[in-house]
Specification:
The protein is an alpha+beta fold. It is about 35% helix and about 20% strand.
């Protein structure tokens, strides 16, 4: 019996479409590290491209998810990558998850879509020393203030409103709410420092949620808050 990896390898070797996608990703991956945003230094502990895609897609679980969340709590670079990939995937309708009933080669294309989304983010993300179209060399931002999540934080009675601190010079904020599996439950861009969750977003009492805010402080320059966890305390039984 041919295992799943062997079946995928056989299909990729004989499918022009899949082979073309794989070749493109291999070539683009070589540029990925060099194109990473310079305003945040990458460390050996930073998440891999696969780990970012898995977290955004909600595929990481158990100890792997806990390790990812712990790293994101202290790494602005990876938080920004996760938020950007989630935003791109939502905007472009990138399908990162495929039904198990589909053929193996169709399921193989799922990580291809995730990797493509991540590459698009990194390879088009302006770096601190990039030149803008006018020929002006943008200054490198070294110590930009970041928004601070104010509420909800930790265990709360309700969480219908997300509040964060204002950032001097910021003209727009992007807020993202994740569930425990890393799936984006809500996101919005606005000029205010308050976002009210729509009625369609139902938060399950006792379940953990994560949220973060990005502040736009210049031409396509963003600073990211810490990833903040909270849960809604179940109502007491009467």
């Amino acid at each position: 019996m041919i295992d799943a990896d062997s079946a995928i390898a056989v299909h990729v070797a004989t499918c022009p479409e899949c082979l073309e996608q794989l070749t493109w990703i291999r070539e683009a991956t070589g540029e990925l590290r060099a194109a990473a945003p310079s305003r945040w230094a990458e460390t050996p502990q930073c998440l891999s491209e696969a780990a970012v895609a898995a977290f955004v897609d909600g595929q990481s679980a158990g100890a792997a998810r806990e390790a990812t969340v712990a790293h994101l709590a202290g790494c602005a670079r990876c938080r920004a990558m996760v938020a950007s990939v989630a935003r791109l995937a939502a905007a472009e309708g990138v399908a990162l998850e495929a039904p198990a009933a589909q053929p193996l080669w169709r399921r193989w294309q799922v990580p291809v879509a995730a990797a493509a989304a991540l590459l698009l983010v990194v390879l088009t993300w302006p770096r601190g020393n990039d030149q803008i179209g006018t020929g002006h060399r943008a200054p490198t931002i070294t110590a930009a203030a970041a928004p601070v999540p104010l509420a909800p934080v930790a265990a709360v009675a309700e969480a219908r409103v997300l509040r964060w601190s204002a950032v001097p010079g910021a003209d727009r904020y992007h807020v993202t709410l994740f569930d425990a599996g890393g799936r984006v439950r809500y996101e919005s861009q606005l000029a205010d420092t308050v976002a009210t969750l729509p009625d369609s977003i139902a938060l399950v009492p006792g379940q953990p949620y994560l949220w973060s805010v990005e502040a736009r402080i210049g031409w396509d320059r963003w600073t990211t808050s810490p990833l903040t966890a909270f849960s809604v305390v179940p109502a007491p039984r009467r």
